[in-house]
Amino acid sequence: MYSSFVRLFKSFRPHWRKLLLSQLLLALAVVMTVRIAALNGRLVSEGIQQGDISAVIHISVLMIALAIVQAICTMGNSWLAVLFSEGTAHELRVRTFARVQHLSFGDLDRFRIGQLLTRMTADVQSVKMGVLMTLMMALSAPITIVLSIAQAAESTPQLLNLMVIIMAVVTCALIGLIWGIRAMFIRRQASLDRLNNVLQENLSGVRVVKAFVREETEMRKFTEVNSDLERTARAPMYRIALLSPLMSFLIYGGQAFVFAVGGNEVFEGNASLGEIVTFVNLLVASVAPMAMLAILVPITAAGEASMRRIFEVLDARPEIIERPDSSALEIDALQGRITFEHVSFAYRAEDGTLSGEVLKDINLVIEPGQTVGFLGSTGSGKSTLVGLVPRFYDVTSGRVAIDGVDVRDIPTAQLPLIVGTALQEAVLFSGTVRGNITFGRDIDEDDMVVAARASDAHEFVARLPERYDSRVARRGANFSGGQRQRVAIARAAASMPKVLILDDSTSALDLGTESRVQDSIGALMPGATKLYVAQRISSVLTADKIVLLDHGSIAGMGTHDELIAGNGLYREIYESQLGPIREGGDR
Amino acid sequence: MSVPTSDAGELDLATAEEPRPQLKPEPTDVAPDPGAQPAEAEPDIRANIGRLIGYVSRQRSLFVPAVVLIIISVSCTAYVPTLTGDIIDIIGTGQEGELGPRTLLLLGLAITLFVTGWIGGRLMQRASQRALRTLRQELFDRVQGLSLSFFDKRPIGELMSRVTNDLTAVDQFMSQNLGQMIQAILTLVMTLVMMLLNDVLMTVVALLVMPLMVFTALAVGRIAGPAFQSLQLELGGANGYAEESLTGDKTIMAYGQEDAAIEQMTELSERARAVGSRAMFSTMVTSPAVVVAQNIGTAVIAMVGSVLAINGRFEFGTVVAFTVYSTQLQGPIQILGRVYTALLSAAAGAARVFEVIDDVPIVVNLPGAKPLDFRGGHVAFDRVDFSYVPGRRVLHDNTFEALPGQKIGLCGPTGAGKSTIMNILTRYYDIDSGRISIDGQDIRDCTLDSLRMTISAVLQEPLLFSDTVMMNLKYAREGATDEECIEACRQANAHDFVMTLPHGYDTVLAERGASLSAGQRQMLTIARAMVAAPKMLILDEATSNVDTRTEKLIQQGLTRLMHGRTSFVIAHRLSTIRDSDQILVIDAGRIVERGTHEGLLAQRGLYHRLYMTQFRGSPMGTD
Predict the structure, then answer these.
(1) Predicted ipTM?
(2) B41-358: which CATH number, 3.40.50.720, 1.10.1740.10, 2.30.30.60, 1.20.1560.10?
(3) Are B323 and A44 a contacting pair at CB < 8 A?
């Protein structure tokens, strides 16, 4: 029923002493509560009823002392529960985050960022509350039931049977109420998820919604899931609303019964009034807290659902794993020759099966210092092909090597130092421009500025009020697309890598800027092997070699002149982008 | 009091001085991060909670009977100790005849309070859930009515997690804590009333202990409040960092910065844990402290009551009743203490929900706006000025005309204002001065719906929904048939790849179309625009993401689509617009050149330069 929670609690095993202590403190607090209730009875029968002030004082002082012990136990339990729950939250946040960091590009494509984020925030929060409430309350109900029966056996043995009966009814009522409530909460959670999905899709597609004037449809869609949520949320809450009145009924109905039966016993001289008062007090003190379960049940049900979602992420197995026998390369000695040998690649679906091949038997040698442009139609596999070099993906078969060393044999930490990549989507992080270019690496001021100049970023950065120390907002929201791309290129170039990959990362630049950047990058790092993935043919015209991909295979390779002369597909692309080739040109 | 208050001062300082992990708003009007904002000040809490409760109390037909029933139920509960006190006196003094009726009365009370409490609780739940539904719907409807500038100010992802998290906090309060709170307050009141009816002097004695309880609860509130604020702050920092890193995770991986990111996350999370532990524990102190205070109260009542009973002021059953009353006060006070923390987070959540609800859309229908009367599509810009942010003009004095059926090309360097021109034509933003008219009607005098249904845009960022391909296409026009959609796909040359998808047109796309390539998404958005069958068309760099071979095919379709329709094409690649009837060259928000492709080339100005850079390095460029 609570399988994920059980699994979570099993992971607390190393801390079992603290866990045990917290529950012992809880039990002790319940003992005190029951004891105080019994003392309350004695206060009446031995003190107030007898008019014995010294007994009143004596018993009162005892009660207060027990109350203080109870308070200390409760606080001890609370403190441990808080430590556990906050520790769990911290642990889950960090472990989920770390797990995501070690996923591959393929996994990231599969998971939704929004989902991952919800797991790290809302789900963690709800697990935290679940752990907290479980440690503070879960065992108090059974402990109370057992202890109040024990107390009744000690102080009012004649009424023991009655206490057993009432507690049996309480137990049945609790089980009856809680039974099935988890299923109701799961249905509610499903409705809530649907609502959130509609909301998220609507928000992320707000421009489309507005462009096609579909606000009405969207509102109808939302109204539907919204009403559904109202319905499913009511069911469990109705049950919980029953809990507290039911407990009150059991307390007061039980009292009426005790008075009716016990009163006659007193009249016949078989029982004392004090016993009856003690019993009534015991009843109040032991049954009333059961209503608190109304708080516990929804919280743990939500916590369980959240925990399951978090485990989904934690259990994901990363695709890219460092080989145990990988050994570090001497980076300075590297040439930067890249070879693709019979490389094939297919994406792996969630269930581990391979989908259709994206790359088929690619053979390609790129010499050190060469500039190579990759062209091809949508889905031809350009980005995937270059992504194999920094191991964003691993080949399905074949081999990708740098200077003859299989990239899978290079330590994963070293690969980013060898291969610098500016991705299709230029992401900036909040912080400073400087921080975004150096990006956690040891890069000195001069190298940074040189790289920024080469990527045409220096000019606009220098115009900012605080230059390289200017603040970057989250996701670089205060920079334009072209500015972000230029900073991202500077980031890739700043470490002067042996291999530089620009994966369609100049798409937001106008042609003049793009060619300027390419020229200055070429001048800055003449020895580096440069791989440019491009949509625009004008981006790769000057490359030493142009690789033309089509449906995952190489459809042509050579310089612009060679291809224009001998490759029909290339000519076709050229003409469609730049207009008809004039006769008498280079042919 | 045994409450460890020594931390309180420290926490306060931490809230005040801890540097915010998020950024201050940039001059470029980036929205401040709402997640990291400290909770609102006290009066706002009251106002927001009051407004939330207003949503419930407005359900009069549910709320009023619920409150009445709860009052009855609570009154029964409050009367019980008096009754049991009487019964104890009856048993003590041996009045056998009285016992039966009184115990029956007690049983009757138990049944009444059960039935009223249950039905009252149910009705209250119904009212709360309905109120929540209303609130959610209001929020959603408002978001639909907001202008795009609202979304420009807030990253969508942030808005999403914010809305869901805030709604959760509000939900928790309304469906769980609100009922408890109302019940607790009513119990307090009714218990006090019953105590006063029993004996005024004893009530005063019992209340001597009340300040102790109330003080405890208040003290906890005082510690917990700031502690929770700093918890929100730290948590906001950690969550903000998580969001940013996850969004840019590929970049982090590409640079091998995973460990640095994990380290940073650990540090932020650790801070949230430290603050969180203190915040949570400080709220936990209420309950045991109240228990101690209540027991002291019982002791005082027993002592004073016994003395008074011996002196014959009342029977000792009254003393017993008062000890029970003092116990009865304990529950509600504990609950109120517990609810307080939920109330704080609900108030913070509500504040942000209301912020959205209260945001007035900037672009609205003017009074007396009429549907656009389309008569061919004659578009005229007359001396149009525009700025996104007041004082930073983006478009200057733009005047141009598009005759019905013409194709107008827009080009120019990045950031020149090409997309902006189209945003103001569809009234995503209103212009500062000048006039834009379609067929002689000022677009500000037209209803937004009629305007946007006339002009269809294929957007720069191809957005698809996680639904089937077919539903995505039908999204463009209510009542579009399957055949129309398939035909549109044929024209956009999307049909072939759609047929290769596992379930063809019934294939469900991943979120935002992530399972498709950029080019495929683009083709589908083009097909979608075709389904819309608009009277006029805007292509905003629509083809720049599609590779050339596909683009050529799309061009055919687009040409067919644009035929007879006034169209605006914004493109980086000049080949897309060379056959335009008129090309506008935009630079720094001004139209610097205009004419046909040949005419502009002959001018040897900016257009000529833009055109020639494409051929850099090729023999053509040297021509």
Answers:
(1) 0.75
(2) 1.20.1560.10
(3) yes
